[in-house]
Known about the structure:
This protein has 511 residues and is an alpha/beta fold. Among the domains are: 2-67 and 102-176 and 270-345, FAD/NAD(P)-binding domain; 400-507, Glutaredoxin. Helices cover 32% and strands 29% of the residues. It contains 14 helices and 24 strands. The chain has helices at residues 12-23, 48-56, 60-65, 87-90, 105-118, 166-170, 239-250, 297-316, 326-351, 355-372, 376-386, 444-453, 467-470, 497-507, and strands spanning 2-8, 28-32, 45-46, 68-70, 72-77, 80-86, 100-102, 124-125, 127-134, 139-145, 148-159, 176-193, 199-204, 209-214, 220-226, 254-271, 276-277, 280-282, 288-289, 400-401, 432-437, 458-463, 478-482, 488-492. Strands 1, 2, 8, 9, 10, 11, 17 and 18 form an eight-stranded mixed sheet that branches. An eight-stranded mixed sheet has the order 6-5-13-14-15-12-16-19, sandwiched between helices. A hairpin with a 2-residue loop joins β10 (139-145) and β11. The structure holds flavin-adenine dinucleotide.
Amino acid sequence: MNTDVLIVGAGPTGLMAANQLERFGIDFIIIDSKSGPTVESRAILVTSRSIEIYQQMGLSDQVVNNGKKVTSFNLFTNGKVRGEVQIGELGKEQSEFSYLLAFEQFKNEKLLSERLDNLGKSVLWEHEYLKMLEYENKVTAMVRHQGEEFVIEAKYIIGCEGAKSPIRHELDFSFRGGTYEQKFFVADTVMEAEIGSDKLIVSPGKENFVALMPETNAHTYRVLGTLPSKFNKKDDVTFNDIKETVKKTLNLQIDFKEVNWFSIYKLHHRAVDHFSEGRVFLAGDSAHIHSPAGGQGMNTGLQDAYNLCWKLAMVLKGQAPERLLRTYNEERMPFAKWLLKFTDRGFTFMSSRNIFIRVFRKLFGLPMAGILMKREKIRKLAFKTVSQIGWSYNEHSIAEDTSTPELEFYAGDRFPYFIQDNLYLKLTEPAFHLVHIGTNPLSEADWNGFKETFTGDLILVEDPIIEKWNSLGVTNELIILVRPDNYIAYIADGYDQQQLNEYLKKVGLKA
Ligand SMILES: Cc1cc2nc3c(=O)[nH]c(=O)nc-3n(C[C@H](O)[C@H](O)[C@H](O)COP(=O)(O)OP(=O)(O)OC[C@H]3O[C@@H](n4cnc5c(N)ncnc54)[C@H](O)[C@@H]3O)c2cc1C
């Protein structure tokens, strides 16, 4: 079998990669050793940034209509509210999806794999990746299906095969970090509780740390936390064993009716120190794993795939040199490093049983967090961070700003999101978009100059200079070159052939 891209692993990351490559018309094969998509809930929350990707793919209505909005985030100790944030209002001016949405991993996988089925590009289930050989211009992978081994030849491989990644091991990538001492439990439960069924609750206690996350079905909650230490050495621990400790830590009126899934595992926080080597790329859990604090795991895998695939598409179509692929590592590695630190600090603060941290947490940390969460600025920042809409690639090689006014956004940022008159709805094609903001449309000569100088597919979007732009510092003509993943590549005051040539030459996109 021959293809342009072989995707190994059809979890959320691999499925997003396949869907993105399909959008760009790139030939791919996606394989997974399992017999079908995940049936367990696993990750629960999808962030605004992920729903924005679904919106670009025409799938956001299905996600939102089949998900459940998490209304508030609550910090509890001993059943007392230490801080409460109404999530629905948090990101109000920042995204149409200004909330956290429960839309479980199995639903994401079903949505993405059904889209592939409908397009005749189904996952090859029960196909196990074994090993590879890399050549100058291709990679060959040995794959096993129903006891038979055969070769798939591809120009590139994306390893999305999860935390144990055989590809990462085979290529001997480092995977530095550590393993938390405490064991961790997760349970999907049906319960009756005084708190209703749409609040996210985090409650660090003396014996353990417990969090409740609403799932999409009524009265169904994910209960997760650290295993009380007295069960550390016990085999076959059940949810019944820890139920009373969980209730004690939460100190809430809860009646657990059913347990649909219960699992205990060790948590790791590790990341590679580079995402790619030659013709091989890693994405999602194969490149970084961390605690579920902040619900970032699945979302980060989706963003990795989204960042990589338009670059692969341009290189495969001959629209960009191979060096564009280096920017995948350049842009995603800092995020992975930051994420590991962010989730590690949050998790350690909430779950540590160290006496000093416990006292600090109780006397200062939690009351302070409660006070800070009342501040509008902090709440907005928290939403920006958790929803992943605030991350910028502004220090990286594709981003360049030659404009003169002081703007409220920079090259490398996510394109500004306006709730009214949302330009994102015009940025849905698998192409670069040239957003021209001006009192008159861009002249035909300037547009032709742009098109002829740029190697990739380019679509012109006109928008008048109106109040929404004024509020971001735009008062005169402005040109914004938007990448296919809706991050800003280049900003200029207008069409300047020489400046544009220099920029496109530098990033390898000059015709
Ligand atoms: C119990 C549990 C609870 C979790 N809860 C949360 C949560 O609340 N929030 C959160 O953000 N994250 C959570 N996560 C993490 C989240 O599930 C992962 O971050 C996410 O699944 C990563 O997606 P992925 O596609 O990169 O990898 P995976 O989902 O692991 O997918 C990898 C795929 O590769 C396939 N594969 C592996 N080896 C091979 C091979 N040799 N050949 C072919 N195919 C192969 C596997 O079958 C699998 O389908 C949880 C994880 C677990 C295990």
